[in-house]
Amino acid sequence: MKHIIVDAMGGDHAPQAPVQGALDALKAYDVEITLVGRLDAIQGELTACGVTTLPAHLHIQEATEVVEICDDPATAFKRKKDSSLTVGLNMVKSGAGDAFVSAGSTGALLSGATLLVKRIRGVRRAALCPQIPTKTGHTVLCDCGANAECTPEYLLQFAFLANLYAKNIMGLAQPKVGLLNIGAEPSKGDSLRLETYGLLQKAHDQGLLHFIGNVEGSDAMLGEADVIVADGFTGNVMLKTMEGTAKFMNMELKSIFLANLKSKLGALLVSKGFKAFKKKIDPNEVGALPSWG
Amino acid sequence: MKHIIVDAMGGDHAPQAPVQGALDALKAYDVEITLVGRLDAIQGELTACGVTTLPAHLHIQEATEVVEICDDPATAFKRKKDSSLTVGLNMVKSGAGDAFVSAGSTGALLSGATLLVKRIRGVRRAALCPQIPTKTGHTVLCDCGANAECTPEYLLQFAFLANLYAKNIMGLAQPKVGLLNIGAEPSKGDSLRLETYGLLQKAHDQGLLHFIGNVEGSDAMLGEADVIVADGFTGNVMLKTMEGTAKFMNMELKSIFLANLKSKLGALLVSKGFKAFKKKIDPNEVGALPSWG
Question: How many domains does chain A have?
């Protein structure tokens, strides 16, 4: 049974959301969970959820400090040694836990994970890799912001990491790996893309992954690729542009629906489908951000 | 009176669209227009439009060749010396015309314009700079694909060019200039962004433009900035991601509207507002792509 360490103090809705999430996860999956954070906060929240005695497979580990959003991300894990973040990551480092989940500061988590738990041997950089909703399902975008400056070797490694995720977590037999670029032809893009294209093609020829060539920003949401390889700068711009465009369109649609009595009636008639769609593209629903490496 | 040279043979709908557009423009604006292309094609199209004698301020310039989409963009203007593209650009070069408009190959146009007409003295690179629709109106994105590899100096020049456009064509008294980046703080981004931030801040301090700092992909469509400065690679990914996201959402909305009788009735009730919105974001409506430099 895998043992998941959960940061009970991380995120805008802590400790409610992490504690409730842990209780839900215990029911849904065959896992062991340890909540890390302030004892009074965790126990208070468990009581509020109607839990008086700890259920099987749920544990609490005390950590007296909390990494705040104003803390310097690069040094927070070191300065707050008894924070839920640092204590939780150290449990993964020591082997007491298999994975650490936090809704707290992404930067602090990434720095802490890299410097405490350390990267997999041979992996140059950890990456942030969300699943984005597409016409055909989901696509993994790797990297989306951890590494603003990248080398072709980093991008090749992102492709391998995302490919593994798409196979083992998303259950795809042969994930289609695409390189985010500004044209479909192999000759397109800057020198980083040209070199990376060569490396990905070589990996494809060796049977290590299934490279389908360049994909453009417009193809990404149409589900052309299961894995999109990008440097962290471009990946981040892409992800946030998707969010911004969706937000913009939602606002415009809302004003269309609220324009007059006729349109309001129309809105009522499509509200069910519309709600399901909003849920599908809501970053708060689909925005979990695994860090690999 | 300004003299506009129009490529009658460029684009998917040539010569119909350029000829019809020239006739419309003559009525709407105080301009002189020369259509460049094959005489029979232009005259045939004018006849089809019911024009038997040339109206005042409309001229025809023969060019026997056409640059096709399969021609190598870098050399097309040179290999097809009697193409509408090359003849038209040479008219601008010689001073016979003030500007050249073409719906043909963007690459061939950019190469031809750079090498025939040449850049403004001091401008390092020509850029492609579309207006993108936003919540508050339009934003100029500069560059969006002409230059995959950029220096901080290029980006500063893109800012100046787009600033001039926003002032003189869009009529904004003090355009807000933002740098496309992966975070709001000045310390965010890669070395290109850090150096460019310094140059833009200096230009702001000298009163040369109004720099509002970094803007993220998510802010762009909400109208935070009137001018968004980007390298051509990132700008292109941003533009195409907007197109892809909008296309994806349109397809999803269509399937919501067509789901059942109730939703179809709802669609009918909001169809007017929805059509206006689709027009607002349709790349075919708003996709003109000025090249500056």
Answer: 2
